[in-house]
Amino acid sequence: MLASLDDFEAQVVGIASGVGNYDSGVHSHKKAQLLYAPTGCITIALEQMQYVLPPTKAAWIPAGIEHCARMQMREVVTCRSLYFDTASFIDLPDKIKIIGVNDLFKQLIERMSLWPWDMPAEQQKNLLSLFIEELLVAPEEMLPLPIPDDPRLKPWLAQVMSGETLPQPLNQMAKRIGASEKTISRIFIRQTGMPYQAWRQQWRLHGAIVRLAEGRSISEVAFSLDFSSDSAFISFFRQHMGETPNRFINA
Protein backbone atom coordinates (compact mmCIF):
# COMPACT_ATOMS: atom_id res chain seq x y z
CA MET A 1 0.00 0.00 0.00
CA LEU A 2 2.76 2.47 0.94
CA ALA A 3 4.64 1.85 -2.29
CA SER A 4 1.47 2.29 -4.35
CA LEU A 5 0.71 5.57 -2.59
CA ASP A 6 4.16 6.91 -3.33
CA ASP A 7 3.87 5.90 -6.98
CA PHE A 8 0.34 7.19 -7.47
CA GLU A 9 0.39 10.26 -9.71
CA ALA A 10 -1.84 12.71 -7.87
CA GLN A 11 -0.94 15.92 -6.06
CA VAL A 12 -2.91 14.79 -2.98
CA VAL A 13 -3.93 11.29 -1.89
CA GLY A 14 -6.22 10.91 1.12
CA ILE A 15 -6.95 7.85 3.25
CA ALA A 16 -9.63 7.45 5.93
CA SER A 17 -9.47 4.29 8.02
CA GLY A 18 -10.31 2.70 11.34
CA VAL A 19 -7.43 0.93 13.07
CA GLY A 20 -7.15 -1.21 16.21
CA ASN A 21 -3.80 -2.33 17.63
CA TYR A 22 -1.30 -1.44 14.92
CA ASP A 23 2.41 -0.82 14.45
CA SER A 24 3.49 0.54 11.08
CA GLY A 25 7.16 -0.30 11.58
CA VAL A 26 9.85 2.19 10.64
CA HIS A 27 9.27 3.50 7.13
CA SER A 28 9.33 6.64 5.00
CA HIS A 29 7.41 8.06 2.04
CA LYS A 30 8.36 9.81 -1.16
CA LYS A 31 5.41 12.09 -0.43
CA ALA A 32 4.94 14.44 2.52
CA GLN A 33 2.29 13.28 4.98
CA LEU A 34 -0.20 14.79 7.40
CA LEU A 35 -1.30 12.26 10.04
CA TYR A 36 -4.33 12.84 12.26
CA ALA A 37 -6.73 10.85 14.47
CA PRO A 38 -10.22 12.38 14.93
CA THR A 39 -10.84 9.83 17.70
CA GLY A 40 -8.40 7.84 19.79
CA CYS A 41 -4.68 8.57 19.86
CA ILE A 42 -1.62 7.83 17.71
CA THR A 43 1.88 7.48 19.14
CA ILE A 44 4.51 8.40 16.59
CA ALA A 45 8.29 8.04 16.72
CA LEU A 46 10.37 10.46 14.66
CA GLU A 47 14.15 10.94 14.77
CA GLN A 48 14.66 9.55 18.32
CA MET A 49 11.64 11.49 19.57
CA GLN A 50 8.21 10.22 20.52
CA TYR A 51 5.05 12.31 20.16
CA VAL A 52 1.40 11.65 20.94
CA LEU A 53 -1.44 12.74 18.67
CA PRO A 54 -4.80 13.03 20.46
CA PRO A 55 -7.71 14.54 18.47
CA THR A 56 -6.36 18.05 19.13
CA LYS A 57 -3.05 17.47 17.31
CA ALA A 58 -1.73 16.35 13.92
CA ALA A 59 1.75 15.50 12.64
CA TRP A 60 3.31 16.94 9.51
CA ILE A 61 6.01 14.58 8.21
CA PRO A 62 8.15 15.79 5.29
CA ALA A 63 9.03 13.39 2.48
CA GLY A 64 11.86 10.97 3.23
CA ILE A 65 11.64 11.18 7.05
CA GLU A 66 11.70 7.77 8.72
CA HIS A 67 8.94 7.30 11.28
CA CYS A 68 6.83 4.71 13.05
CA ALA A 69 3.16 5.08 14.02
CA ARG A 70 1.60 2.94 16.75
CA MET A 71 -1.95 2.58 17.97
CA GLN A 72 -2.54 0.49 21.09
CA MET A 73 -6.09 1.34 22.05
CA ARG A 74 -9.02 -0.40 23.68
CA GLU A 75 -11.23 1.03 20.92
CA VAL A 76 -10.69 1.57 17.19
CA VAL A 77 -8.69 4.68 16.25
CA THR A 78 -10.10 6.67 13.35
CA CYS A 79 -7.08 7.62 11.29
CA ARG A 80 -6.75 10.25 8.55
CA SER A 81 -3.67 10.46 6.32
CA LEU A 82 -3.05 12.97 3.55
CA TYR A 83 -0.09 12.47 1.20
CA PHE A 84 1.28 15.37 -0.84
CA ASP A 85 3.38 15.24 -4.00
CA THR A 86 6.03 17.78 -3.02
CA ALA A 87 6.83 18.53 -6.67
CA SER A 88 3.33 20.03 -6.98
CA PHE A 89 3.80 22.53 -4.13
CA ILE A 90 6.42 25.12 -3.24
CA ASP A 91 5.26 26.24 0.21
CA LEU A 92 4.86 23.05 2.25
CA PRO A 93 6.83 22.88 5.54
CA ASP A 94 10.22 21.20 5.23
CA LYS A 95 10.53 20.10 8.87
CA ILE A 96 8.61 17.86 11.26
CA LYS A 97 5.76 19.69 12.98
CA ILE A 98 3.25 18.62 15.62
CA ILE A 99 0.44 21.13 15.29
CA GLY A 100 -2.84 22.08 16.92
CA VAL A 101 -6.01 21.21 15.01
CA ASN A 102 -8.92 23.66 15.18
CA ASP A 103 -12.45 22.95 13.95
CA LEU A 104 -11.83 24.36 10.46
CA PHE A 105 -8.60 22.40 10.00
CA LYS A 106 -10.33 19.24 11.22
CA GLN A 107 -13.10 19.64 8.64
CA LEU A 108 -10.58 20.24 5.85
CA ILE A 109 -8.63 17.10 6.78
CA GLU A 110 -11.83 15.06 6.88
CA ARG A 111 -13.01 16.34 3.51
CA MET A 112 -9.67 15.79 1.80
CA SER A 113 -9.15 12.31 3.26
CA LEU A 114 -12.35 11.24 1.46
CA TRP A 115 -11.45 12.73 -1.93
CA PRO A 116 -11.44 10.31 -4.87
CA TRP A 117 -7.81 9.67 -5.78
CA ASP A 118 -8.52 10.66 -9.37
CA MET A 119 -10.21 13.97 -8.53
CA PRO A 120 -9.05 16.61 -11.06
CA ALA A 121 -6.55 19.08 -9.60
CA GLU A 122 -8.76 22.00 -10.61
CA GLN A 123 -11.53 20.74 -8.32
CA GLN A 124 -9.07 20.48 -5.40
CA LYS A 125 -7.66 23.97 -5.85
CA ASN A 126 -9.78 26.05 -3.45
CA LEU A 127 -9.79 23.61 -0.54
CA LEU A 128 -6.09 22.92 -0.99
CA SER A 129 -5.31 26.62 -0.80
CA LEU A 130 -7.28 26.93 2.45
CA PHE A 131 -5.68 23.76 3.84
CA ILE A 132 -2.14 25.02 3.21
CA GLU A 133 -3.01 28.37 4.77
CA GLU A 134 -4.25 26.61 7.92
CA LEU A 135 -1.25 24.27 7.94
CA LEU A 136 1.23 27.14 7.84
CA VAL A 137 -0.41 29.14 10.65
CA ALA A 138 -1.34 26.21 12.93
CA PRO A 139 0.37 26.51 16.34
CA GLU A 140 3.20 24.09 17.00
CA GLU A 141 2.53 21.86 20.03
CA MET A 142 5.48 19.49 20.01
CA LEU A 143 5.59 17.97 23.55
CA PRO A 144 8.43 15.58 22.59
CA LEU A 145 9.71 12.62 24.57
CA PRO A 146 13.38 12.06 23.63
CA ILE A 147 14.32 8.39 23.40
CA PRO A 148 17.75 7.39 24.79
CA ASP A 149 19.67 4.72 22.89
CA ASP A 150 22.26 3.55 25.42
CA PRO A 151 22.56 -0.27 25.13
CA ARG A 152 22.28 -0.66 28.91
CA LEU A 153 18.76 0.76 28.80
CA LYS A 154 17.38 -1.17 25.83
CA PRO A 155 15.62 -4.10 27.58
CA TRP A 156 14.12 -1.79 30.21
CA LEU A 157 13.19 0.84 27.63
CA ALA A 158 11.46 -1.71 25.39
CA GLN A 159 9.23 -2.74 28.29
CA VAL A 160 8.48 0.87 29.24
CA MET A 161 7.66 1.99 25.70
CA SER A 162 5.42 -1.03 25.11
CA GLY A 163 3.50 -0.33 28.31
CA GLU A 164 4.58 -3.56 30.03
CA THR A 165 6.00 -1.63 32.97
CA LEU A 166 6.09 1.90 34.35
CA PRO A 167 9.31 3.91 34.62
CA GLN A 168 10.14 3.69 38.33
CA PRO A 169 11.70 6.39 40.51
CA LEU A 170 15.43 6.77 39.87
CA ASN A 171 16.67 4.63 42.78
CA GLN A 172 14.44 1.68 41.80
CA MET A 173 15.21 2.04 38.11
CA ALA A 174 18.98 2.10 38.76
CA LYS A 175 18.76 -1.15 40.74
CA ARG A 176 16.80 -2.79 37.95
CA ILE A 177 19.32 -1.71 35.30
CA GLY A 178 22.27 -2.62 37.49
CA ALA A 179 23.91 0.80 37.30
CA SER A 180 24.41 3.63 39.75
CA GLU A 181 21.98 6.53 39.99
CA LYS A 182 24.74 8.88 38.83
CA THR A 183 25.37 6.76 35.74
CA ILE A 184 21.67 6.69 34.84
CA SER A 185 21.42 10.44 35.38
CA ARG A 186 24.41 11.11 33.12
CA ILE A 187 22.97 8.90 30.37
CA PHE A 188 19.63 10.70 30.37
CA ILE A 189 21.11 14.19 30.48
CA ARG A 190 23.56 13.36 27.69
CA GLN A 191 21.10 11.56 25.40
CA THR A 192 17.78 13.29 26.11
CA GLY A 193 18.81 16.70 27.43
CA MET A 194 16.78 16.23 30.60
CA PRO A 195 17.26 14.58 34.00
CA TYR A 196 15.72 11.14 34.42
CA GLN A 197 12.96 12.41 36.73
CA ALA A 198 11.91 15.03 34.15
CA TRP A 199 11.94 12.33 31.44
CA ARG A 200 9.80 10.08 33.65
CA GLN A 201 7.27 12.86 34.15
CA GLN A 202 7.14 13.52 30.40
CA TRP A 203 6.53 9.80 29.82
CA ARG A 204 3.68 9.86 32.33
CA LEU A 205 2.23 12.90 30.58
CA HIS A 206 2.27 11.06 27.25
CA GLY A 207 0.68 8.06 28.94
CA ALA A 208 -2.03 10.25 30.44
CA ILE A 209 -2.89 11.82 27.07
CA VAL A 210 -3.17 8.39 25.41
CA ARG A 211 -5.39 7.02 28.19
CA LEU A 212 -7.62 10.09 28.25
CA ALA A 213 -8.03 9.84 24.47
CA GLU A 214 -9.18 6.24 24.99
CA GLY A 215 -11.99 7.58 27.14
CA ARG A 216 -10.66 6.30 30.46
CA SER A 217 -11.81 8.00 33.65
CA ILE A 218 -9.60 10.27 35.75
CA SER A 219 -9.41 7.56 38.41
CA GLU A 220 -8.34 4.90 35.89
CA VAL A 221 -5.62 7.13 34.46
CA ALA A 222 -4.32 8.16 37.88
CA PHE A 223 -4.16 4.56 39.10
CA SER A 224 -2.56 3.17 35.92
CA LEU A 225 0.22 5.78 36.06
CA ASP A 226 0.90 5.27 39.78
CA PHE A 227 -0.33 8.63 41.09
CA SER A 228 -1.19 8.71 44.77
CA SER A 229 -4.67 10.13 44.14
CA ASP A 230 -6.95 11.61 41.50
CA SER A 231 -6.19 15.10 42.77
CA ALA A 232 -2.44 14.49 42.51
CA PHE A 233 -2.87 13.46 38.87
CA ILE A 234 -5.09 16.45 38.06
CA SER A 235 -2.56 18.80 39.66
CA PHE A 236 0.29 17.17 37.70
CA PHE A 237 -1.62 17.44 34.42
CA ARG A 238 -2.60 21.06 35.00
CA GLN A 239 0.99 21.97 35.89
CA HIS A 240 2.32 20.55 32.61
CA MET A 241 -0.55 21.30 30.22
CA GLY A 242 -2.04 24.46 31.70
CA GLU A 243 -5.52 22.94 31.96
CA THR A 244 -7.35 20.07 33.63
CA PRO A 245 -7.50 16.63 31.98
CA ASN A 246 -11.23 16.98 31.24
CA ARG A 247 -10.79 20.38 29.65
CA PHE A 248 -7.86 19.14 27.56
CA ILE A 249 -9.62 16.11 26.13
CA ASN A 250 -12.86 18.02 25.45
CA ALA A 251 -11.13 20.92 23.69
TrEMBL record:
Pfam families per record: HTH_18 (PF12833)
Superkingdom of the organism of origin: Bacteria
Family matches, as CDD domains: cupin_NimR-like_N (cd06124)
UniProt keyword list: Transcription, Transcription regulation
InterPro entries: Homeodomain-like_sf, HTH_AraC, RmlC-like_jellyroll, RmlC_Cupin_sf
Name under which the protein is recorded: AraC family transcriptional regulator
PANTHER family: HTH-TYPE TRANSCRIPTIONAL REGULATOR NIMR (PTHR11019), TRANSCRIPTIONAL REGULATOR-RELATED (PTHR11019:SF159)
Domain HTH araC/xylS-type residue range list: 151-251
Tagged with keyword Transcription: yes
Keyword Transcription: yes
